[in-house]
UniProtKB/TrEMBL annotation:
It comes from the Bacteria. CRISPR (clustered regularly interspaced short palindromic repeat) is an adaptive immune system that provides protection against mobile genetic elements (viruses, transposable elements and conjugative plasmids). CRISPR clusters contain sequences complementary to antecedent mobile elements and target invading nucleic acids. CRISPR clusters are transcribed and processed into CRISPR RNA (crRNA). NCBIfam families: cas4. This is CRISPR-associated exonuclease Cas4. It comes from Mesotoga prima MesG1.Ag.4.2.
Length: 165
């Protein structure tokens, strides 16, 4: 059994093969432009808001704030692309927090596009994320998945050279 984290959930929704590579500790390209840009936006955004980079157990939250008695956890993304994966990642964090006794609300933030999406962990979403975690466990135990994405969609992936070169 592997210890599932938010990055793995994000990758699984983006591309099964990416999740498998990550789970098997195959190191992605470190100077990938997309990753560097993401790090830069994360560091430069919301400097005077909440607490950034909060680690609890095996989860790492981009930002945590207390507002009107509510705990709000945010994921900061560089663009609206891959928001489906980011949504699942945030729901996974909300579920892990709930299991620790913390009720929180989620926010997906895309500072470059001034976008804010509120994410709530409903019962249906909770069940879906639990199932998704089971699927990840199964995937990791199996062989490496075939390339599943079109080459142009892989261009920003840090495993691009691994898959395509
Ligand atoms: S390069 Fe494409 S196929 Fe390979 S891991 Fe990344 S998204 Fe998946």
């Amino acid at each position: 059994m592997i210890d599932i984290n938010g990055s793995l959930v994000l990758s699984y929704t983006n591309c099964r093969r990416e999740a498998w590579l990550m789970a098997h500790r195959i190191i992605p390209e470190q100077d990938n432009t997309s990753m560097s840009l993401g790090r830069l936006i994360h560091e430069a955004s919301y400097e005077n808001r909440g607490e950034k980079d909060v680690s609890i157990d095996n989860i790492k939250l981009d930002m945590v704030e207390e507002k009107k008695g509510k705990t709000i956890v945010s994921e900061i993304k560089k663009s609206k692309y891959s928001l489906e994966g980011a949504r699942d990642q945030l729901l996974f964090y909300l579920l892990r927090l709930k299991e620790m006794g913390v009720q929180a609300e989620g926010q997906l933030l895309v500072p470059k596009e001034k976008k804010k999406i509120t994410i709530t962990l409903t019962e249906e979403e909770e069940e879906r994320i639990k199932k998704l975690c089971e699927e990840i466990q199964k995937l990791v135990e199996g062989p490496i998945p075939e390339i599943e994405r079109a080459q142009n969609k892989c261009k920003n992936c840090a495993y691009y050279t691994y898959c395509w070169v």
